[in-house]
Amino acid sequence: MKKLFLIGKSLKHSISPFIHNKILSELGIDAVYSNFELSDFVKLKEFVEMVRKDKDVVGFNITIPYKEDILEFCDEVSEDVRIIEAANTVKKENGKLLAYNTDWIGFKKSLEDIGVDVKDKKILVLGSGGAAKACIYGLYRMGAKEIFVTNRTYEKAESIKDLFEDILKIIPVEWLKKYDFKYDIIINTTSVGMFPNIENSPFDIENYGASIPVFVYDIIYNPLKTTFLKEAEIKGIKTGNGLKMLVYQAVEAEKIWFGGIDITSNLIAEILNECERKVAKVE
Description:
Blueprint: E1 2-8, H1 16-26, E2 31-37, H2 41-53, E3 57-62, E4 76-77, H3 79-84, E5 89-93, E6 96-100, H4 103-114, E7 122-126, H5 130-141, E8 146-150, H6 154-158, E9 168-170, H7 175-178, E10 185-188, E11 215-218, H8 227-234, E12 238-241, H9 243-257, H10 265-282
Helix pairs in contact: 1-9, 4-5, 4-9, 9-10
């Protein structure tokens, strides 16, 4: 049986194994997808060494906080990864580890499903890690013209400016309270508000002084409605969570690992519905 993994620091509540194993089962692929928790960089190196030696490993996904660190151990990277400088999918092929990023595709498809047009919109992105860079790249590919990024550590946000310098502006987090900016879309790519710390919010939209945005998106999917999204909905703002992004990026990863497979829209819809029920039970 072939093996696939999700690596990250805290995976207890991840539903990725359900998504991937559902796809594998429905398509009759003899493989199993499992969580593999890592606590530090040294263990990341050990995991990669294990993957290289185990002939049954097809590939793996990467989540917080290793989407950037993993690149040090990969032999080749896709053009998307070269630009984003973060990977969430690795395929083992002929002994080499090939890095891909399907996060941006999942993000893009989720916005398209919701019916959000980013063209000519002023967009605020909260966070500057691997997920933020994937989302920014997705926005760029969808025609966004003006993106503002803020992060608790200004220097970290500054570090990504060169990746998308033609459309990106970095603002200190303090400015969110001091100045009355107007954004059409606000996107949270941080982990603030994620289960179990669901009372937290990355942005005080309740007291946001400027004209309210038309859309607020949170890449968090557990809970399905974060405090950030609930406060936005109270103001009548259209919202979206990260569940569709998670499912769509998983679909793209499966296509990379097992080229030529057909994952139908009906199967995707079924997985989305089951995932919503699973997450709702945890809330």
